[in-house]
Amino acid sequence: MNDILHRVGAKGSVAQVYQALTTVEGLAAWWTTDTVGKGNDIGGVLEFRFPPGGFDMSVVELEPDQRVLWEVVSGPDEWIGTHVRWELSQVDEWAIVNFSHEGWKEPVEFMHHCSTKWATFLLSLKALIETGKGQPSPDDVSISNWH
């Protein structure tokens, strides 16, 4: 199995990051404005839509201000069954996010694209925490014909 791994810090609190990861309003403010569902209950499903398509994630684990874990239940074939993990910690004034998109069967070209897109969206999350304004889809950074 292959994983996408990123680490980013934002000047703010892990409580702010946790809210941005577990509420539709928070997710829509940094990832995609077309977000619906229930992110603050285990078993809840979040539906994320982007111009080229979308995916649904089931909430598997929630540990307030520490961890969020989702499982991809529909979307691109390469994503189904993978997990998206958010590990949070507070270091002084920094909320640290250790992110992983786990369980890719092989490092296909789409995985490389997704790694870069995850990085841009993590920077959008950072901006949301630090300035109150993220850069969610459809206004995100376009990196290729896959957006």
Can you summarize this structure?
This protein has helices at 14-22, 24-30, 109-131, and strands at residues 2-11, 34-37, 45-50, 53-63, 67-74, 83-91, 94-104. By secondary structure, the chain is α+β, with helices and mostly antiparallel strands. The two termini are 25 Å apart.
Q: What would your notes on this structure say?
A:
By secondary structure, the protein is an alpha+beta fold. The protein has a single domain, classed as 2-Layer Sandwich (Alpha-D-Glucose-1,6-Bisphosphate, Chain A, domain 4). It is built from three helices and seven strands, in the order βααββββββα. The two termini are 25 Å apart. The mean pLDDT is 97.
Helix count, DSSP H or I runs of 4 or more residues? 3
Q: For this structure, what is the CATH homologous superfamily?
A: START domain
Mean of residue pLDDT?
A: 97
Stated plainly, the CATH topology is called: Alpha-D-Glucose-1,6-Bisphosphate, Chain A, domain 4
CATH class: Alpha Beta
Task: Indicate the proportion of strand residues.
Answer: 35-45%
Low-pLDDT runs = none
Shape, per Cα inertia axes? globular
